[in-house]
Specification:
Blueprint lengths: L1 H13 L3 H33 L7 H46 L3 H6 L2 H43 L1 H8 L1 H39 L1 H6 L3 H29 L1 H22 L7 H23 L1 H19 L19 E9 L5 E10 L4 E6 L5 H8 L7 E6 L2 E2 L5 H7 E4 L8 E2 H6 L7 H10 L3 H5 L8 E2 L8 H14 L4 E5 L7 H15 L3 E5 L11 E6 L2 E6 L1 H6 L3 H14 L1
Length: about 575
C-alpha cells in the first residue's frame, strides 16, 4: 500500500507538467506502433518476395522498412528526451518542497537529525527519483504499450500460438513479485548505509581540525571502513538477488518461448498454414514482448531504489516538527521591555532544564546570565528567540505575550550575535546586508563603521566586495565577530542578544570588540550570556544560574559583596588571569 501511495504521489508531480508528459506519451505510443509495424512489413516481404522469389517492388519495400526504422529511432529519442525533461522538473520540485519544509522545522528536529543525512536525501535520493522518470518510467510505459499492441497483433495473426506465448506472462509476473519480496529489504538497507556514509564523511570533513589535533584519524578510518563494509555486504546480497531473478530468468523464459514457436511451426506448418513470414513475425514479437520486460526487470533495481528514495524525500516534505507557531497579530515591538514570568522548560518532556525563571528587563537596560555549563543560560535565549515551544510560564515583550507577535516582527526586532559567528559564502557586503533589499550600501557601510569593522575591511584589496569563503575561514575570529556585529546593527534591532560574543576573542581584539559592544547596546535592551565575567561588569543586573534556577541576582558589586557562587567564579577567573 505504501509503495502504491508513493507511486501515485509521484504521478501527481509528473502531471504538473501535463503538456510535456502528454507529448512524451504520444512519442512512446507512436514508437510502439512503428515497432509493431516493422515485423508485419518484414513478414509481407518474406512471403511476397523471398518465398515466391520475386524481386519487383522489393527495393521500394526495403526503403519503406528502413525509413520506418529510422523513424522509430527518432521517436524513441524524442520520447526519452521529453521524459528526461519531466524528470528534472519533478526533481526540482521535490528538492524545493523539501528545502522549503526544512526551513519551517523547529530546532528540535535538527538536534536529532544529522546534517549529512539531510544532504543525502536532497541530493542522492532526489537524483534516484529522476532516474526512475527518465530511464525506467519511459521504458515501463513503452513496455505496457508494446505488450498491448503486440499481443493484439499476434492474436490477429494466429490466436492459438498467441495463447501459448501468453502463458509465459503469469510466470514472469510471479518472478517480479518474488524478486520484489526478496530485494526490497536489502535495498532499503543499502540506502540507509549510503546515508550513514554521507553522515560520517560530512562529520569527518567538517571536524578535520579536531580529528587531527586529537589524533583520531585511525579511529575514524575504522568507523568509516566498518560502515563501508556493511554497505558492501548489503549491496552484494542485493546483487545476488538481481543476478538470479533479472536477466537470466527472463532470458530463459524467452528461449522457451522460441522453442514453443519453432515446435508449433514444425508440427503444424502443413495444416495450420503458417508461413515463414508469420514465424519470423512471431519471433520478432516475442522479442518485443520479452526484451522490454527484461529491460524493465534489469532496471527494476533502479525502480525500487527510486521508490525507496522517494519515500525518504517525502519523509522530509511531510515532516511536521514545525517551529513554534505565532498568533500573528499586527503588533510591533516599540520599546523592547522584556519579562519572564515563572517559565519552566524541558527539551525531552522529562527533565526540566529551566525551573521557574522570572526576571524583568526595561528598555535600554543590559542584563547578563552567568553559570556553569548546563545551567540553562542558552535555553533562556532559545525560548526567547522562539526556537523551542514552551507551555509553562509566560514571556512578555512590551507587555504582550511573545506568542502574539508575528515571527517576522520578532526576527526583525531581535538581533542575535553568537559565540561563533556564521558567515555565508559570498562577499563582505552580502554578509552584512543579509540580502535585505531595503538596506542600501551606504547604510551597510555605516553599520560597519559603527562597530569599528570598517578599518580592516578598507584595507582589503576589494574592500566590501572582498570574497568570503565558507564560514569565513580566511578571516580571524575577531574580524568574523565584527562582521557579525555589523550585520546585527544594520538590521536596527530593538533587542540585542549576545550569546558569549567575546568567548573566542583574543585579548588584543577584545578591547575593540568591547568598544563595539558598548556602542551596540546604547538605547537597546540587551541580554548577554557571558563566560568572561570581566565583560559584563557594567550590566544593570547579573543573574547567576545553577541547574536551571536563578540562585543569585544583582549588580557586579552586589554579587561580589555576597559570598556566593558569583564571587567564587570571579575569584577563580581572576586567579587564573594572574597566574
Amino acid at each position: 500500500m505504501k509503495k502504491q501511495a508513493t507511486f501515485n504521489r509521484l504521478m501527481g508531480y509528473m502531471w504538473r507538467y501535463k503538456g510535456l508528459s502528454s507529448l512524451a506519451l504520444a512519442f512512446i505510443f507512436l514508437t510502439t506502433l512503428v515497432t509493431t509495424g516493422l515485423p508485419l512489413l518484414a513478414r509481407y516481404f518474406i512471403d511476397r518476395f523471398i518465398s515466391s522469389q520475386q524481386a519487383a517492388g522489393s527495393f521500394y519495400l526495403l526503403f519503406v522498412y528502413y525509413a520506418l526504422f529510422l523513424l522509430r529511432v527518432l521517436l524513441t529519442f524524442l520520447g526519452q528526451y521529453s521524459f528526461a525533461r519531466v524528470a528534472q522538473s519533478v526533481v526540482r520540485d521535490l528538492r524545493q518542497e523539501a528545502f522549503d519544509n526544512l526551513q519551517q522545522q523547529g530546532m528540535a528536529y535538527f538536534d536529532r537529525t544529522a546534517a549529512g543525512a539531510l544532504v543525502s536525501r536532497l541530493t542522492n535520493d532526489t537524483q534516484a527519483v529522476a532516474d526512475m522518470f527518465s530511464e525506467i518510467f519511459s521504458n515501463f510505459l513503452s513496455s505496457v504499450f508494446i505488450l498491448a499492441v503486440t499481443l493484439s497483433t499476434m492474436f490477429a495473426l494466429n490466436w492459438q500460438l498467441t495463447v501459448m506465448i501468453a502463458l509465459f506472462l503469469p510466470v514472469m509476473a510471479a518472478s517480479v513479485l518474488l524478486y520484489q519480496h526478496l530485494s526490497n529489504r536489502q535495498l532499503r538497507q543499502v540506502r540507509n548505509k549510503l546515508s550513514d556514509l554521507n553522515v560520517k564523511l560530512s562529520e569527518s570533513i567538517e571536524g578535520m581540525r579536531i580529528v587531527q589535533a586529537f589524533g583520531q584519524e585511525k579511529r575514524l578510518l575504522q568507523e568509516f571502513e566498518e560502515i563501508n563494509g556493511q554497505h558492501l555486504a548489503f549491496t552484494n546480497r542485493y546483487l545476488n538477488i538481481n543476478s538470479l531473478f533479472l536477466r537470466p530468468a527472463m532470458s530463459l523464459l524467452k528461449i522457451l518461448a522460441y522453442a514453443v514457436i519453432l515446435s508449433y511451426f514444425g508440427l503444424t506448418w502443413k495444416t495450420a498454414g503458417i508461413t515463414a513470414g508469420i514465424m519470423y513475425a512471431f519471433i520478432q514479437y516475442v522479442n518485443q514482448l520479452f526484451n522490454p520486460l527484461i529491460d524493465v526487470m534489469q532496471n527494476y533495481s533502479v525502480l525500487q531504489t527510486s521508490m525507496v528514495a522517494a519515500d525518504r524525500v517525502f519523509e522530509i516534505i511531510d515532516q511536521r516538527d514545525d517551529e513554534p507557531q505565532q498568533a500573528g497579530l499586527d503588533l510591533q515591538i516599540q520599546d523592547g521591555n522584556i519579562e519572564f514570568r515563572h517559565v519552566s522548560f524541558s527539551y525531552d518532556g522529562r527533565r526540566d532544564v529551566l525551573k521557574d525563571i522570572s526576571f524583568t528587563v526595561k528598555k535600554g537596560q543590559t542584563i547578563a546570565f552567568v553559570g556553569s555549563t548546563g545551567s540553562g543560560k542558552s535555553s533562556i535565549i532559545n525560548l526567547f528567540l522562539r526556537f523551542y515551544e514552551f507551555e509553562r510560564g509566560q514571556i512578555l515583550i512590551d507587555g504582550r505575550d511573545i506568542k502574539d507577535y508575528r515571527q517576522e516582527e520578532l526576527r526583525r526586532k531581535i538581533g542575535l550575535v553568537l559565540q561563533d559567528p556564521f558567515l555565508y559564502h559570498g562577499t563582505i557586503a552580502s554578509n552584512i546586508q543579509m540580502y535585505q533589499e531595503q538596506l542600501t550600501r551606504d547604510e551597510m557601510i555605516e553599520a560597519a563603521k559603527f562597530v569599528d569593522a570598517d578599518g580592516f575591511i578598507s584595507q582589503l584589496p576589494q574592500g566590501y566586495d572582498a570574497p568570503v569563503t565558507e564560514r569565513g575561514s580566511t578571516f580571524s575570529s575577531g574580524q568574523r565577530q565584527l562582521l557579525a556585529f555589523a550585520r546585527t546593527v544594520a538590521a536596527q534591532p530593538k533587542i540585542l542578544i549576545l550569546d558569549e560574543a567575546t568567548a573566542n576573542i583574543d585579548s588584543e581584539t577584545e578591547e575593540i570588540i568591547q568598544t563595539s559592544l558598548r556602542k551596540m547596546r546604547q538605547g537597546r535592551t540587551t541580554i548577554a550570556i557571558a563566560h568572561r565575567l570581566s565583560t559584563i561588569q557594567d550590566a544593570d543586573c547579573i543573574y547567576v544560574l545553577d541547574k536551571g534556577r536563578i540562585i543569585e541576582s544583582g549588580s557586579h558589586q552586589d554579587l561580589l559583596a555576597h559570598d556566593g557562587l558569583y564571587r567564587k567564579m570571579y575569584q577563580l577567573q581572576a586567579g587564573m588571569m594572574e597566574s
